[in-house]
Amino acid sequence: MLFEFDADQRLLADTVREVVARQCTSALIRDIVDKGADPGPLWQTYVGLGWTELTEPDSAVELGIVCEELGRATDPTPFLATVSQFAPLAPEVACNQAGAAVYSGVTAAHDGTDWRLRGTARYVLDGDRAERFAVVTDAGVFVVDAGSVRARRTPVFDPVLHVAEVTFDDVAAAESARRVVDVAAARERALTAMALHTVGACRRILDLSLEHVRNRKQFGVAIGSFQAVQHKAADMYIAIERARALGYFAALCLAADDPRRALAASMAKAAAGECQSSVFRNGVQLFGGMGFTWENDLQFAIKRAKAGELMLGGAAAHRAAVVDHYRALEGNRAAHL
After folding, report:
1. 239 and 96: one domain?
2. Is there a contact between 88 and 189 (Cβ–Cβ < 8 Å)?
């Protein structure tokens, strides 16, 4: 594996950063929250630039680059749900329309003619504005149009994030809508993208905190000159770099179809969750508690980082998955002795 970005990947990272800095500004985020502004034009920009085409497993690193930068900008579009969650479950469907993934809560039964989907899925990312759903059931993955389901947005602490409760009330799905998909592999891609998205939000917290401690003065000097402040900033940086390294290692495993990819994805998600905990705490403290106020842009980043920890399983759940993996390996070794 090559553990450094190549020239094309560096160019992609620079391009995404420039586009997002120009078009996904904090002013836009505030307009969306305060005035109900439409993020549709920004979504169409992503589509036009080809970012929604990063759906193949071998483009996992490139997808991670985009997801990290969008996490840093508190992206208000359905990109994360569509490209990292819906697309792996429906690989043959183009992602120029918003999609969402339903991983649990829905059952499928065959009535002799069609399949019938029943159940309610909670906390579906972008479920209220998706145009299509990829629904995981014991009978396979079904792709259905949003018009056949009932979706209700659920209020969450991140005011930009769309999370919904989606109800499938005897929804008819033809056999042609059913797909046999490696759901575990799809979930690994979703975990890795979510981990890097969370890392991006944490980077934003660090950037804003460093800017603040350089400008905020106490006793006639910048508070960034105080050793205690420097230690907190250093702890934040180390946590971010660790989580970022594990995130891109997981992306490399996915791109190379490495057998460690499931373990790497859980390690990346656990590290991202631990990272946000440390960065959240230290970032708010360095701001003197002002990070919670509406006037401060830090609030958007800390809310997105916390949401990233809670979605698709938190750090504790994925640490347990890592432990289970190694216990299984030890059991296999013992069985062969």
Report:
1. no
2. yes
